[in-house]
Specification:
The chain is an alpha+beta fold and 125 residues long. It folds into three domains: 47 residues, no CATH class; 39 residues, no CATH class; 38 residues, no CATH class. 37% of the residues lie in helices and 11% in strands. The strands form two sheets. Strands 3-4-5 form a three-stranded antiparallel beta sheet, with no helix packed on it.
Length: 125
């Protein structure tokens, strides 16, 4: 009986960790099957969902309209949400017609998406 309760707790904790990433089902299954190891796997996995930039509910990465708040989600906002950890703050010049590359500090025109010197991809939000 105690083993069944412990097993259920492992699954529940895995589900709670997975819910924070939009993958509660996966977290529950991994928690049930692997226990604390499943928790770790769930905690470090990216998940297949992103948060809506408006209502912060988890949605599919390919969604064009949020099913919760029904707002349009532009591709730029989805890219920003998916790569939030990878985006570095850009330093713009005084008249906002260009920016300095965060990798090599080369001045680039505002309409360029790759640094002309080092080729670093730039995501302007």
């Amino acid at each position: 009986m105690e083993l069944l309760i412990i097993w259920a707790v492992f699954g529940f904790v895995g589900m709670m960790i997975g819910n924070n990433k939009g993958a509660g089902g996966m977290g529950c299954i991994l928690g049930l099957l692997l226990g604390p190891i499943g928790w770790i796997i769930t905690a470090v996995s990216k998940g297949d969902k992103v948060q809506c930039p408006y209502c912060k509910e988890f949605i599919n990465k390919a969604a064009v309209v949020c099913p919760h708040c029904h707002k349009d989600i532009s591709e730029k906002e989805i890219i920003n949400e998916v790569h939030r950890d990878d985006v570095r703050r850009l330093k713009f010049n005084a008249d906002k017609t260009g920016y300095f590359c965060p990798k090599c500090s080369t001045m680039n025109p505002i309409d360029m998406q790759l640094c002309r010197k080092c080729g670093e991809e730039i995501i302007i939000t």
